[in-house]
Amino acid sequence: MQKKAEDVEPAEQTDDQRPGIQSVEIGAEILSALATFGRPVPLRSLAAKCGMPVGKVHRYLVSLTRSGLVEQDALSGHYGVGRSAIAIGLSGLWACSPVKEAARAIAQLRDATQETTFGAIWTDVGPTVCLLEESDRPIYMNVRVGALLPVYQSAAGRVFAAHLPEELIKRVVKLQEHALSTPVAKLTSVQARELHQETRANGYAGVAGSSVPGVNAVAAPVHDYKGNVTVVIGLLGREPDLPLSAESAPIKSLLDCAALASERLGYRAGAAGQQEVED
């Protein structure tokens, strides 16, 4: 006999099947939309962002303001994120760790692509592998947890270089001339800036057979809630299995996993500089 929805145990139901309170979900949607502006905004701008009537949004804002989740500027009448919402957000951020999210992301990425995945952090001597998930496909590689990566000859290094201060990168490249056993690639300032710009525009960096002939590497940044790049995730695979084109399925999976990890850390792409038409 088939179970009715109300007879299904909570553990057997998905989030979409479980009964909820619609007004709470609408309030959360309004609050999330407000957070994307990064500043107090007029009621009409917020209503337009939510795709809801002004009157409906106003009623929810009254309750959200009473609860401290929203604050209204006394002079302009604009609405912004309240202290209670900020406290909730900070609590979530304190529970987050970029490396923990990267570990979660590379496990998902390995399962999605069947390729070896890794995570890297920035140290005083350059990008260093901190996470590694090996695939079932045998490939020869000299990458291990704790391995120091060259700045411009590794995909992870190129991603960090594109997002960190130029003077810091120059200093570390000079240090790596003595720290690494392999020759370090030297770029002119113009070449480096062009590479940084290309990496930021693409959203990832790729290198073909730089460390190991026949093995490609690609990497993408994970942003924290401030937009900083503290960890990078990437893929390693044989050239036929891991093409460096942005249209390849592995790179699309990489970008998706990096974006999801960034979102979990509180990052909202374009939120800080977002400009809305205000009435």
Automatic annotation (TrEMBL):
<dbReference type="InterPro" id="IPR036390">
    <property type="entry name" value="WH_DNA-bd_sf"/>
</dbReference>
<dbReference type="Pfam" id="PF09339">
    <property type="entry name" value="HTH_IclR"/>
</dbReference>
<dbReference type="InterPro" id="IPR050707">
    <property type="entry name" value="HTH_MetabolicPath_Reg"/>
</dbReference>
<dbReference type="InterPro" id="IPR014757">
    <property type="entry name" value="Tscrpt_reg_IclR_C"/>
</dbReference>
<dbReference type="Pfam" id="PF01614">
    <property type="entry name" value="IclR_C"/>
</dbReference>
<feature type="domain" description="HTH iclR-type">
    <location>
        <begin position="21"/>
        <end position="83"/>
    </location>
</feature>
<feature type="region of interest" description="Disordered">
    <location>
        <begin position="1"/>
        <end position="20"/>
    </location>
</feature>
<dbReference type="GO" id="GO:0045892">
    <property type="term" value="P:negative regulation of DNA-templated transcription"/>
</dbReference>
<keyword id="KW-0804">Transcription</keyword>
<dbReference type="GO" id="GO:0003700">
    <property type="term" value="F:DNA-binding transcription factor activity"/>
</dbReference>
<feature type="domain" description="IclR-ED">
    <location>
        <begin position="84"/>
        <end position="267"/>
    </location>
</feature>
<protein>
    <submittedName>
        <fullName>IclR family transcriptional regulator</fullName>
    </submittedName>
</protein>
<dbReference type="InterPro" id="IPR029016">
    <property type="entry name" value="GAF-like_dom_sf"/>
</dbReference>
<keyword id="KW-0805">Transcription regulation</keyword>
<dbReference type="GO" id="GO:0003677">
    <property type="term" value="F:DNA binding"/>
</dbReference>
<dbReference type="InterPro" id="IPR036388">
    <property type="entry name" value="WH-like_DNA-bd_sf"/>
</dbReference>
<keyword id="KW-0238">DNA-binding</keyword>
<dbReference type="InterPro" id="IPR005471">
    <property type="entry name" value="Tscrpt_reg_IclR_N"/>
</dbReference>
